Amino acid sequence: MTGSSTVLLLMDLQRNIVERYPSAAVLERAAAAADAARAAGIPVVHVRVAFREGAPEVAESNRRFAPAKARATGGEHAPEVQIADAVAPHPGEPVVVKRRVSAFAGSDLAVLLRALRAERLVLAGIATSGVVLSTYIEAADLDFDLVVLSDACADADPEVHRVLLEKVFPKQAAVLTAEEWAASAA
To answer: 62-104, pLDDT tens digit by residue?
Structure first.
């Protein structure tokens, strides 16, 4: 699993999302996965959701993002939408800015993955029922080989988290702990 055919995606591990989840353990496991990836020569790509000042990209009909539109200040450069310090990008690691739930939606992720010759994506992030699920579906449809790091994901609803990890994700992905994946990436 070494080389550029595998890419680790750390998704939505940004300050304004991390603060809403009991995520210290998730951040530790995501950081450990990133360290293992770097040691194995596997690219680490960070993904975050952000909007321009005033969130002009958000339609009033968008139930997920419209309520936050009024609070959107500072735009995509605001401190609260930056990656959490515990998993901060290392120099040279790309940060993809997306405009919707999936890491692919409104971003240049597909272009970046093509340039990296990615075949396998390793997914970690918050929330399991949000960015992880949406990205998993789109990546599976794009024929990527997928791995989901079960303990480097979090969700507000523990039952939804469990069902996704135990019943949904295994249909098209290997579901491993960060430690299991790190051992196989070495």
So the answer is: 566 656 665 666 677 777 888 999 999 999 999 999 888 899 9
The domain ranges of the chain are 6-48+84-185
Cβ(10)–Cβ(125) below 8 Å:
yes
Query: Which CATH number describes the domain made up of 6-48+84-185?
Result: 3.40.50.850
Contact 98/52 with Cβ under 8 angstroms?
Answer: no
CA pair distance 150, 167, nearest whole angstrom: 12
Paired strand residues for 123? 9, 148
Residues 92-140: tens digit of each pLDDT:
999 999 888 899 998 999 999 999 999 999 999 999 999 999 999 999 9
